Amino acid sequence: MSGDKNSGDKEHRDEMHSVNKACALAVSDLRWHADDRAILSDISFSLAKGEMLGIIGPNGAGKSSLLRCLYRYIKPDNGTISLFGQNTSHFSAKEFARQVAVVLQDTPHHFELTTEQLVAIGLTPHKGPFDLTTSADRRLVADALEKVGLTHKAGQVYEHLSGGEKQRALIARAIVQQPKLLILDEPTNHLDIRYQIQVMELLREIGISVITSIHDLNLASAMCDQLLLLDDGRSVAHGTPKSVLTEARISEVFGVCCSTQPHPQHGNPQISYFYGYSHGDNANDKNAHDENMSAGMSHWNSTERHKQDED
Ligand SMILES: Nc1ncnc2c1ncn2[C@@H]1O[C@H](COP(=O)(O)OP(=O)(O)OP(=O)(O)O)[C@@H](O)[C@H]1O
């Protein structure tokens, strides 16, 4: 009898272990308020090892606030954040930096550093105060610069790089950090379309778990394994792009008129937006919203008719 129980317990432990192993990040009941206002309410989700999760939602939905909680810039009022089964609030700063790399839009100025020196900062969590730079370190930095297409800018002053090049340099620094989880706040913001795609593909290729906020829903649909849709600090939907990005949900949460169809290449939803509806103060009013939707549709219909007449 006790043997049965022990083997049952072991099975349960093995099962839990494999669940924890497969789950890179688990967030439960996260809550945060500021200025007497709830900014994040009861957010729960998980991220599987090696997957990319896109955080989407309108301006002010709480995307950056959620990421700030994850990388410990903000201490939430409630909830737990676990990385591979360990509560991140128990990590020392150095241990946390070994496990989690962060790429933000607004970074401190690095006037005096070359691109290569900036990227080498990623080595810091793995070094003691008296450790010298090794040839392996230099190789790591060179490989990361090559991965983001900045080898030719290695010796240039970082501050003199373009917005997109700076962004790629920061991703190279994160690669050098060799984290288990990479957190990015709108990494494609400064990038032209070629580099938007290239950076997102690069993030997928690195093979680590990635969580990134992203405004471009079509890019999120194409590149993310999972999406978490936030609205007014709440989780509205979580799942595959196909399950999250429905026409009804997009128009309700973002207040736009749109249609979706499977992308010819990857099959996830591709969103077409319609134009021509007004933007009043009553954007949250359901009737006004519906009127806007039908105005958008009729505008589109007339434009389409006009086009067809011309043809
Ligand atoms: N420290 C703070 N104190 C007070 N309010 C805050 C603070 N940080 C964020 N907020 C508020 O929380 C809300 C969510 O902000 P957050 O930056 O997380 O949204 P977001 O989804 O990232 O928006 P965006 O898409 O515009 O970048 C906003 O209304 C913002 O004003």
List keywords for this structure.
Rossmann fold, 311 residues, 11 helices, binds adenosine-5'-triphosphate, globular, single chain, 6-stranded mixed β-sheet
What would you say about this model in short?
With 311 residues, the protein is α/β, with parallel strands linked by helices.
What features would you describe in this structure?
The structure is a single chain. This protein is α/β, with parallel strands linked by helices and 311 residues long. The chain has a single domain, classed as Rossmann fold. The chain is 41% helix and 23% strand. The chain has helices at 2-22, 63-70, 93-99, 115-120, 135-147, 163-176, 193-206, 217-223, 241-244, 247-254, 286-310; strands at 23-34, 37-48, 52-56, 78-83, 86-87, 100-103, 181-185, 209-213, 226-231, 234-239, 258-262, 269-273. The strands form three sheets. The chain has a six-stranded mixed beta sheet with strand order 6-7-8-3-9-10, with helices on both faces. Strands 2-1-4-5 form a four-stranded antiparallel beta sheet. A hairpin with a 6-residue loop joins strand 11 (258-262) and strand 12 (269-273). Helix 5 (135-147) packs across helix 6. Bound molecules: adenosine-5'-triphosphate. Adenosine-5'-triphosphate (ATP) binds at residues 34-35, 39, 57, 59-65. InterPro entries: AAA+_ATPase (IPR003593), ABC_transporter-like_ATP-bd (IPR003439), ABC_transporter-like_CS (IPR017871), P-loop_NTPase (IPR027417).
